[in-house]
Amino acid sequence: MKRNIFLYLFLFATLWIVYQYVHNKKFYESQQQKMTKLETKHQKAIDSIDALQQRLGETEYFGLRSNANAYEYYEDSPKEISDIIQQVTDGIIGKNTLEGNVFIPYEGDERAYQVNQIHLLNHRWLIADFSDGNTWGELLIEYFVNEDNSIDYRVIESLLYP
């Protein structure tokens, strides 16, 4: 009788171990598949970030902050570059009124043209995007920061998209 009990316990233990082995093996394989998928997604995300950083570097090539020569121009200035950028931007966007913007030489169809966005190319030029809601255009503007911190603007060229 004792021998049968030990035999049954041994068989039960063996079946339990085999069950645990099979179950854990399947669990391990499913976890490996999940990890492989996550590693693939992670690599794609890293590749996307690298591509976006490269594109950002290309788009920032023409910009006041990334242009070393233009940056040096304001090095002796008591104002920070970010303050100058804000002052120049505010000076142009601040001219937006219901009648339009004095820098835009076009008349709008339904509404007056207003400047939407500005990008400073260097210490002398900027490009501005404008629209009236239906048509868009761009301006190339020359600006100069005077000794008294006032800013003079001169429209070099304008373009209206058909």
In short:
Helices cover 48% and strands 21% of the residues. With 162 residues, it is of the alpha+beta class. It has 2 domains: 1-59; 68-160, no CATH class.
N-to-C series of helices and strands: HHHEEEE
Number of helices: 3
Query: How many strands appear in the DSSP assignment?
Result: 4
Shape: elongated
Helix vs. strand class: alpha+beta
Which bin fits the share of residues in helices?
40-55%
Largest sheet: 4 strands, antiparallel
Number of folding domains? 2
Low-confidence stretches: none
- Going across the biggest sheet, name each strand in turn: 1-2-3-4
Proportion of beta-strand residues: 15-25%
What do the pLDDT scores average to? 88
Report how far the terminal alpha carbons are from each other: 100 Å
- Please give the radius of gyration in angstroms: 33 Å
Describe, in plain words, how this protein is organized in 3D.
The protein is α+β, with helices and mostly antiparallel strands and 162 residues long. It has 2 domains: 1-59; 68-160, no CATH class. 48% of the residues lie in helices and 21% in strands. The protein has helices at residues 2-59, 68-73, 81-93, and strands at residues 114-120, 125-131, 136-145, 151-160. A 4-stranded antiparallel sheet has the order 1-2-3-4. A hairpin with a 4-residue loop joins strand 2 (125-131) and strand 3.
